Amino acid sequence: MWASVISAGNAVVAHPASLNDPGVSTLFLTVGLPGAGKTTRARQLAEEHRALRLTPDEWMIPLFGQSQPPGKRDVLEGRLLWLGLEALGLGTNVVLDFGCWSRDERSAIRWLVASVGASCRLVYVPVDHETQRARVAHRQSTTPDRTFPMSEADLVQWRTLFEEPDASELEGRRVGDPPPGWPGWREWAADRWPSLV
Questions:
Q1: pLDDT reading at 7 higher than 50
Q2: Does the pTM of the predicted model rise above 0.70?
Q3: Strand, coil or helix: what is 43?
Q4: What is the tally of structural domains in the chain?
Q5: Is residue 171 a part of any domain in this protein?
Q6: Domain for residue 196, yes or no?
Q7: Dihedral, CA atoms, 160, 14, 79, 148, nearest 10 degrees?
Q8: With helix as H, strand as E and coil as C, how does 58-110 read?
Q9: Is 14 helix (H, G, I), strand (E, B) or coil?
Q10: What is the CATH number of the domain that holds 124?
Q11: How confident is the model at residue 79 (pLDDT cuts 50, 70, 90)?
Q12: Domain limits at 149?
């Protein structure tokens, strides 16, 4: 199903063979840490592929009045994921600009996308610590109303939590089983993003 893996600028992108099929919609899933350039890449992808771009950071303040209100991020992500799956089912390409730090999150999304007959393309945007720090500082000084505070300690901690996509994911190999105790990825996803269902 997957044709090749290439490097696109600073992003590592897996290309499914089904992208050549005009009848198959595609979800472009941006993966990376804050300050990596995911949203910039997501905007490019949306324009290039006439895709619906879903970036939670752009919804948080208009909906909740804060950039990171407690307990709201997962609710919003669940509804955006639901919307993305609906759009894919209608034949619309989607860019999901979530970050998706964990392999389980990415596996669940890949499984859900396949379940609606669409293809999924991971767009990994790596960033070194110094570049990340500089970009975050710039964002906080120029657009503080569109971001949230990120300390040096946060950046260091998040880097330890981030699971970099491996070759298996980037090549689009079959999604493995969910973690022990889960009957399927749908159930895992419904627990991770309760508003998905």
A1: no
A2: yes
A3: helix
A4: 1
A5: yes
A6: no
A7: 40
A8: HHHHHHHCCCCCCCCHHHHHHHHHHHHHHHHHCCCCEEEEEECCCHHHHHHHH
A9: strand
A10: 3.40.50.300
A11: very high
A12: 2-191
